[in-house]
Amino acid sequence: MSGTETKLVEQLVTANRILANEGIVDVFGHISVRSERNPEEFLLSVSRSPAAVRAPDIQRYRLDCTPLVEIKEKHYVERVIHGGIYQARPDIKSVCHSHSDGVLPYAVSGETIRPVIHMGTLFWEGIGWFDRYDPDGNLLVSTPSEGKALAESLGNRRAALLKNHGSVVVGESIVAAVMAAIYLDKNAQIQMASAIVGKPVFIEPEMGKIASRVFHSPLVQERAWGYWVARLPKGWESDAGLG
Amino acid sequence: MSGTETKLVEQLVTANRILANEGIVDVFGHISVRSERNPEEFLLSVSRSPAAVRAPDIQRYRLDCTPLVEIKEKHYVERVIHGGIYQARPDIKSVCHSHSDGVLPYAVSGETIRPVIHMGTLFWEGIGWFDRYDPDGNLLVSTPSEGKALAESLGNRRAALLKNHGSVVVGESIVAAVMAAIYLDKNAQIQMASAIVGKPVFIEPEMGKIASRVFHSPLVQERAWGYWVARLPKGWESDAGLG
Amino acid sequence: MSGTETKLVEQLVTANRILANEGIVDVFGHISVRSERNPEEFLLSVSRSPAAVRAPDIQRYRLDCTPLVEIKEKHYVERVIHGGIYQARPDIKSVCHSHSDGVLPYAVSGETIRPVIHMGTLFWEGIGWFDRYDPDGNLLVSTPSEGKALAESLGNRRAALLKNHGSVVVGESIVAAVMAAIYLDKNAQIQMASAIVGKPVFIEPEMGKIASRVFHSPLVQERAWGYWVARLPKGWESDAGLG
Amino acid sequence: MSGTETKLVEQLVTANRILANEGIVDVFGHISVRSERNPEEFLLSVSRSPAAVRAPDIQRYRLDCTPLVEIKEKHYVERVIHGGIYQARPDIKSVCHSHSDGVLPYAVSGETIRPVIHMGTLFWEGIGWFDRYDPDGNLLVSTPSEGKALAESLGNRRAALLKNHGSVVVGESIVAAVMAAIYLDKNAQIQMASAIVGKPVFIEPEMGKIASRVFHSPLVQERAWGYWVARLPKGWESDAGLG
């Protein structure tokens, strides 16, 4: 249980369901949020498919990924992704790890995702590349050293690809992280289709930096969040207030 | 509120939902209609996702994009697209701006969409190309000068692409604009797939001009509109009569 | 109204809805059946989107496409496709004309659809190609001479492509025609994807001829029909018994 | 009827519906399970679309594919796929045969599916290739000799492609076979998209062997199964307890 941060837990549950409904996560993938009352802790579900996450599933972890409360259920082994990034990036409040269909071809081929549409300008600073799995690794980011290496690959950027695996995106809020996950996938899909049609013209960083600002405005974030919530199947938002 | 044009407002609300349901708009995108009682005004929602637009959201604007009534809610910053086109094109009654998946690869690569299927002959006059964003631009068409430049790029045509951004289509009625938005996307998708399969054969303008006529017949427009309305999820059409 | 052939009308209505639900037809496209009581007549809806067709919409036409009963509603202008084929092909009981997404890239590029999967062996005899639109044509097959020319392009085969337009498939029954429409589209889709992945290996006609037999067995046709009916949205089959 | 193995029958029914809902099977395709009380027998539905399979449809077969109980309904002619593999692979408890869209392009082109994403490491041992249809064959695997040849093509692997036809996957349980069917398709789709984007980097067998282990953990299998069950349309799981 998450203590007193009821509102944040509720939003995190909804974020799980949005990401499932928008096809960003499926059996696997997870999103976390940094605690508001203690920035040295973060909130993340126990090991669950995001579509099935409910408020009581949300756990509280220290940044070294040890849980504050012992539970019988399993933790995500990849929670080191979250802990590693929260340690390296004090500016970041939410982390999402996924393997969405639009992004995977880039994680598999090693080609770079670059902004081609307005929403893609969120990534005007470029995209990190992680392939420093432990030598005896299993393609999961499951050890503290892998979590640390991933945070280094991410650097100051908003997203990184994980070789043959997926992506991680970060945001200044849950909404910002959800938006980054959805728009990284969308930009990737359009980039691929553009390469079929002709030659994609990338948006230059200077333009991208300016163009991306609109996605940080509360008005636009609320509009987007409201849209994603409205698309949830009936009942999917109904448990979100528990906690 | 829109004054006395209840029927037109109702149709505009339905158009918003059709475009959302057919995947032409998502969080973003908008459709407007020129007022019937005063051609120097147009109707457009406040800043909303099209799926969420209801009759009370519809506002009345002068062609310079100033609202007739002051409201607390935000206006679309891109309403200059609509105002600019209504000024330049007295023949046009409805304008739709979107970023649909089929069209974006062409807006990104700079390749041209050309008619390859019957529905695509709506665009037998060709497609405009807009890239004259303001020098300090943010990839939005948000200033009067950008709106004017976009209208020039459109010229006398039915559609224009906006570089790295999306498209605008116009029509002699709401139904015609919705049809143009849906069929521009469809033609673009088939054109891309045709280029994978072989070499697309384009429909020549003379043939296209003749072939396009059927889409202006009231019978066909009603059939299409009825089909799109029937596909709306239960309840989506139920608010459309408000106003 | 269709006179006494209630069962056939009911099946034709269901076929319209199946084709709509499986994405083979949308605003446009139509399926007809030869009358059982008089092979010189066929049954076809008035001008309607297939998803909206109900039993009272089904009309009776002579093979020259004149209606037996005068009505106020409009007829499909392309009903000459049906009349032309029923005249040329006494073996055929059902005709379907559509513009499905999988097939269109071949109609646009002029590339041939050839059997690559088991269901595609229905087309082991090859696919016809029609491009003999009237000189002042509008890309519709709307005159008796175009209907006749299309039937010639079809020849003894089960399917033909219409340049920049779509396809026509035929069957020994409504079920057979629906199956042909769905599997022509599926084979086309897989053929395209196979060409992306590598080089498609086509199924030779001798093998195809044998392999196709299973799709003419009543057991398999019933299984397929039952599957498509079960996939109809709730309520879509409920009007099918009217008439 | 299946005698006393009620739980297993129930799980097999659910597996049929999951595979239908996830787009792995449609009109055709089937999944079986080896009997727990007698490993010389297996359970499989009568000839039905998987979406329509109910507990009373499940039959009991000897490994030579003769049914234990005579019934009026038809058996799948391709049940020799199941019998052939159960004979050759005592380690295997479940077999699934399908023609999913992601896999077919590889079965058509003869290109190999190789692991490119984590889920694809289930196939780290490679994929078999079957093209030894009987000389007078019909592209079905319908004779005992074809079933035996297919089992040989499969070898000790988890999956094999059937030329111009589809695939077979095997598992140590129903859940494992369902997972293999879904992830073979997913890996194939991403492999194709990766080849469009750039050049896919395959996961080497040593890495794949280690990375695949997580998919055999009960925790992960339960999470996946629970996710697929939760996605079933309302009512689809409600018959699953019959038997």
Describe this structure as you would to a colleague.
- The first copy, chain A, has 243 residues and is α+β, with helices and mostly antiparallel strands.
- Chain A is 36% helix and 14% strand.
- Chain A has helices spanning 6-21, 79-88, 104-109, 144-154, 174-197, 205-211, 218-231; strands at residues 30-34, 41-45, 58-62, 94-98, 128-130, 159-162, 166-171.
- In chain A, strands 3-2-1-4-7-6-5 form a 7-stranded mixed β-sheet, with helices on both faces.
- Chains in contact: A-B, A-D, B-C, C-D.
- Chains A and D meet through α3 and α5 of A and α5, α6 and α7 of D.
Q: Nearest-angstrom radius of gyration of chain A? A: 17 Å
Helical content of chain A stands at: 25-40%
Multimer state: homotetramer
Spatial gap, N to C terminus of chain A = 7 Å
Low-confidence stretches of chain A: 239-243
Strand order of the largest sheet of chain A: 3-2-1-4-7-6-5
Please trace the helix and strand order of chain A, writing H or E for each element.
HEEEHEHEHEEHHH
Please give the most extensive interface between any two protein chains, plus how many residues each contributes.
A-B, 29 and 30 residues
- Largest sheet descriptor of chain A: 7 strands, mixed
The number of strands of chain A is 7
Number of helices of chain A: 7
As a percent range, the share of strand residues of chain A is 5-15%
Mean pLDDT of chain A: 94
Global outline of chain A: globular
Structural class of chain A: alpha+beta
